[in-house]
Design goal:
The protein is about 30% helix and about 25% strand. It has about 80 residues and is α+β, with helices and mostly antiparallel strands. The protein has one domain.
C-alpha cells in the first residue's frame, strides 16, 4: 500500500512537477542500515511526535492518511 503526494515547485527559474510515493510497511526489527547515498538520517516516532516534527503540510496530510489507514486495519494490519 502506498500514498501519493503531487506538487509543483520552481528552482533556478524552471518549474518542476514532483510525485512522491510513501509506502506503508511493518517492520520486524527497528534497526536501520543507512545507505549514505540515499538517506542522511532517520528517527522512529509515534504519530504525535512526527506531526510536531514535520513542517511541510503535504507530508502532514500523508501521515494523517496513513494513520487513518492503519487504524482502519486495526491490530490485523497487513498492507499487502
Amino acid at each position: 500500500m502506498y500514498f501519493t503526494e503531487k506538487y509543483d515547485f520552481e528552482e533556478n527559474g524552471k518549474r518542476y512537477e514532483k510525485q512522491v510515493k510513501y509506502f506503508v510497511a511493518l517492520i520486524q526489527n527497528p534497526e536501520v542500515k543507512i545507505l549514505k547515498s540515499e538517506l542522511q538520517n532517520y528517527k522512529w516516532l509515534n504519530f504525535d511526535d512526527a506531526m510536531k516534527l514535520i513542517t511541510y503540510q503535504g507530508a502532514k496530510n500523508i501521515l494523517k492518511k496513513v494513520q487513518k489507514y492503519i487504524n482502519k486495519k486495526g491490530t490485523n494490519f497487513h498492507p499487502f
